[in-house]
Design brief:
2 copies of one chain form a homodimer. By secondary structure, chain A is an alpha+beta fold. Chain A contains 5 helices and 6 strands. The first copy, chain A, binds a DNA duplex through α2 and α4.
DNA sequence: TGACAAATGCAACTCGGTTGCATTACAATT
DNA sequence: AATTGTAATGCAACCGAGTTGCATTTGTCA
């Protein structure tokens, strides 16, 4: 069973409906490996001659993020990107082609680094965001 | 000699002028320890009854960032912040009071982490951004 | 002091994102 | 299958950060 179906079932149980936009967005993001922008999502969930209003898309992305099923991402001054929720990770952003790749964010050395900062700065860390900008293998 | 004076001298040599807004912005950011937002800057560079147009402030911040004297910062979905350029560092952002604190970004362990990612992901890293979100000592 | 280019102000604009409100459609109930 | 309550949708208007074009002012240098 796909994660999307599981989510839709959960949502239905709590009174939310299985709307067309909702399902299309979930399936799109579940199958896509890298985060997508709102216009991109808007374009790709269009089915047959049906397009969805941008308000709908924004509201749905907000709704699903609020429920914890999606995660919103902001890279620099750029527009918002959305991806399926999963274990915490970091991002590689290619400044050549714009591709965004997820990388593991749960490494031991990383946790050490975080604990070090907490200790040295007397600061309780709740989350962090880390992005690398550079050139991927093909754009090198 | 203040850094601001030095920068103004450099700029004059290359044909840029020592305008009031420019000088006020540089002095403000040189003396301020944490990054400031554009409205904040706009407010604080006002001198006597003279206020500067937002276009002027935006253009000046852009100009000085382009020259490498200032650095633009983006934390999440928030508006742009500006700070005086200096050695690379990371940021602690308190979600209680909103304070932003610079922390050292040139540690050995951090460089190791970065090299590891380059190696494992076959990605040429040119820059990165790292922010920690949490609670400072007083907001704890 | 005059002249040229840089800096400034103003108004209008762009664009991502939001809000209020009327309309449509999903799904539970009869 | 028809009814009904509410969630989802569309539309238009709006918001706020940031930008642009153009006319005006001001700093610097000859």
């Amino acid at each position: 069973m796909q994660k999307t179906d599981q989510i839709l079932t959960e949502l239905r149980k709590e009174g939310s409906r299985q709307s067309v936009a909702r399902e299309r967005i979930l399936r799109l993001l579940e199958s896509h490996l890298s985060p997508l922008s709102v216009p991109e999502i808007e374009r790709r969930i269009a089915v047959d001659s049906r397009r969805f209003n941008k308000t709908t898309v924004y509201r749905e992305l907000q709704f699903l993020s609020g429920k914890g099923y999606l995660k919103e991402l902001r890279l620099r001054n750029d527009t918002a990107l959305y991806e399926f929720s999963g274990p915490h990770h970091h991002h590689l952003v290619c400044i050549g082609c714009g591709a965004v790749k997820d990388i593991d964010g749960e490494t031991e050395s990383w946790h050490n680094e975080e604990r070090r900062v907490e200790r040295e700065e007397n600061f309780r860390i709740l989350e962090h965001s880390l992005e690398f900008f550079g050139l991927c293998a093909t754009c090198r």
